[in-house]
Amino acid sequence: xxxxxxxxxxxxxxxxxxxxxxxxxxxxxxxxxxxxxxxxxxxxxxxxxxxxxxxxxxxxxxxxxxxxxxxxxxxxxxxxxxxxxxxxxxxxxxxxxxxxxxxxxxxxxxxxxxxxxxxxxxxxxxxxxxxx
Length: 132
Fold this sequence. Notes:
Layout: H1 2-17, H2 21-26, E1 28-35, E2 41-43, H3 45-58, E3 60-72, E4 75-86, E5 89-102, E6 105-113, H4 116-122
Parallel strand pairs: 1-6
Antiparallel strand pairs: 1-2, 3-4, 4-5, 5-6
């Protein structure tokens, strides 16, 4: 795997932070698997192209910051934070990612995060008054 796996993952993250859907999609293998923080699997480059477009529309200013990175026999493990703004509410969550690189492309990207701050920002506001 060598430095090339780390380089591929770093390029992928740069494309995420630039909100460059076409560029990040080019980093994905045709049979790419994205596994979200709830364990839901999304497969295929085209599915992810649409998914990233929708996510960037939903989460303004989305970006990831990597604080630690380790190359392991099966892939690359990253630890850091994901942050963004949804419905005017800014949030930041500690996050870990697992990347599997195959043939110079990201074949699998898994996210480990508590996305409750994002989910909370998307809920309709409550009146805060007593129940009728």
